[in-house]
Design a protein that fits this description.
It holds the Pfam family Aldedh. The protein is an alpha/beta fold. It contains 16 helices and 20 strands.
Length: 500
Amino acid sequence: MTTPNPTIHQHLTDPSLWQTNSLINGKWQAASDGQTFAVTNPFDGALIAQVASLSADDVRAAVTHATRAQTDWAAQTAETRAKILHQWADLIDANRDDLATIMTLEQGKPIGESRGEIDYANRFIRWFADEGKRVYGDIIPAPANDARIVVLKQPIGVCAAITPWNFPAAMITRKVAPALAAGCSIIVKPAGQTPLTALALGELAQRAGVPAGVLQIVTGKSDVVGDVLTGDARIRKLSFTGSTATGRLLMAQSAETLKKLSMELGGNAPFIVFNDADLDAAAEGLIASKFRNAGQTCVCANRVFVQADIKDAFLQVLLPKVRALQVGNGMDDNTTIGPLINASAMDKVRDLLNDALANGAKLVLGEPLPHTPATLANGAPNLLVEPIVIEGVTDDMAISQQEIFGPVLAIATFDDEAEVIARANDTEFGLASYFYTNDLARSWRVTERLEYGMVGQNTGLISNEVAPFGGVKQSGFGREGSKYGIEEYISVKYWQVRLG
């Protein structure tokens, strides 16, 4: 076991969940060359861990172990795999508070959100544990009486997952759980900003009985680990959540080995409030969508369109709710918005906000962000941003074309339904979208015409384990969660047999 960081030990009931080496073939392994990278708390900039930074040879060894382990794992019954997954889920439930603490310390989100994410992440494990028992094949009527045609569904083989920093537990379990349930082994590369949650989940998976080599967690530089995961032909499938630019790169790198891919990429979600909407419900939904995780989600409301004749009334309802949000240390139970993840994130939010204000947007709530960020006593940047609301936003502004990934709510107005649908669709992205109306006919029209993989009506929260999560256009392809999610880890085999 790794010796717990002394500054963390006091926060955890079970300090052995604090792992800083990679999980390879059932063992905690340092990098063969001794390299590490730093993980810091975004709230105060404090160094909380030095984590193993694996070499390419270390990662290739993990692929070898995964290849050997996959055959035996696939040979287990779906029921056997389900029992182990449920045991893993039970251990996650039992260690919920420790996992949430680790997440908040490395990611910054409020502790209440971290607890909620652990629960959300665990629902994927339980869902897919049982869904693995429902991977059904088919018998197809044959063109001849002496023939039978059978379709078998089998595990695709060794898989890899590259996960982001904003949801360091849920983005892992909704990839790992279907892979394991289907009979695949999987190698996870967590984000460098938030590897500790992933490693803690790996520790619990080992305790639950996941065999050595079936689930491995490799930490290190994105280019080093990514090059191996995309280039090794033994890996049959790669799942990635992250930016569209990185998704394009990984897709190109995977082309030579023709891997099966699933990509959950960037978003630019419209949030439309029609003049027949329940304004209080719309304001609550907007806050839940926009400010969760300090606005650092790929499905959060990015472009808010409010019908012009209700804009002022909507702001009167919305602004008191925004003012009630509390910005601060994620470890404080009263905090509802934690820090941004790093200085680059702060720079992006500041630049998008300042560009919008310079081009005619009006500040309704909050203050402009300074060109020189404030620093803390230890010299680390202050990454806290009070919630900001601006109006008068136009479609040609950079803030309307890029993911803000921060607690800035940008409001534009529209006159009619056809106009706002056209404007909402005028983006290369197509992940999540939202609208508020009580008109049934409009509900169907808008849902069918929005070019997005997911549509939320009269709600700002759409993610759950039973529904297919994913996008269209340059927001990617493939689905996670639901009965469709396990198909991403399945290979279809056609078998024809002659009886005569």
